[in-house]
Design a protein that fits this description.
heterodimer, A: about 110 residues, mainly alpha, about 65% helix, B: about 140 residues, Helix Hairpins, 6 helices, about 70% helix
Chain lengths: ~110, ~140
């Protein structure tokens, strides 16, 4: 009983999540909204041209001469999203301090 | 039915991530051993990485690099795109975001494992049901 009820719950949960996943664009679709020059229906054609290309396409096309990196992920991590990478070290530092203080508690 | 199977197969990566997520969440809820709970949490995190990487994929897309060694052999898809004049490359943003997610998950795993060590030192057990019954 203790295993059966959660298993039924997670089967229903999984079916709902699969139904949600079915509404996404297919895997590898080059016209998916996050990648292509997708224009939402409420934006006119002129505004879309003024706004330009999607972020991913901008990185892929102009990353080489804007940052000088040899790899797009390198240019994304260290140039376009440098603050993200900078404060990642804060996360690691906080985790290190937490682990040391938890393991060292009550030693005295 | 055939149409449904075609939709399912075109999104099979996402379906696999949902199954992995459910397995990890089941372990997180049902197992009473703390180490097994931490393993379930890591499975959930891995399923999220797989979901984002699958959403980054572009069919026949090249690896995200600007530079190729002269002796490097292009694979068939890259050669076809190079011949067509444009090299379609996969989406670089999810890869960069997952690097952040991996750092966060390593930190969370380290803190939970150190808490498990302290619980075992103080109570002599990792079973959550036994820990709940203990007093003081």
């Amino acid at each position: 009983m203790r295993r059966f009820v959660p298993m039924v719950f997670f089967c229903i949960f999984g079916i709902i999540m699969i139904a949600a996943v079915m509404t996404l664009a297919p895997v590898g679709d080059p016209h998916q909204p996050g990648y292509s020059e997708f224009v939402p229906p409420h934006i006119s054609k002129e505004d879309a041209i003024k706004k330009g290309e999607s972020v991913a396409l901008h990185y892929n096309r102009h990353g080489a001469h804007e940052t000088g990196a040899l790899d797009i992920i390198t240019s994304t991590i260290f140039d376009y999203r440098g603050y993200d990478t900078l404060f990642e070290t804060t996360v690691l530092f906080t985790a290190l301090i937490s682990v040391l203080s938890i393991l060292g508690a009550g030693k005295e | 039915m055939i149409g449904f199977l075609r939709i399912l197969l075109s999104r099979i990566d996402y379906v696999v991530t949902v199954i992995l997520f459910c397995i990890g969440f089941y372990a997180l809820v049902v197992k009473s051993n703390l180490i097994k709970k931490i393993i379930g949490m890591n499975i959930v995190e891995t399923s999220v990485y797989l979901f984002l990487i699958a959403s980054a994929d572009i069919r026949l897309g090249a690896a995200t690099k600007f530079w190729a060694h002269p002796n490097e052999v292009l694979n068939a898809a890259e050669a076809a795109h190079a011949a067509a004049g444009e090299l379609a490359m996969v989406n670089p943003i999810p890869s960069a975001l997952i690097l952040t997610a991996i750092v966060v998950s390593v930190s969370v795993t380290a803190i939970s494992l150190s808490l498990a060590v302290k619980i075992y030192e103080n109570y002599g057990t990792l079973d959550t049901r036994k820990i709940m019954r203990l007093k003081g």
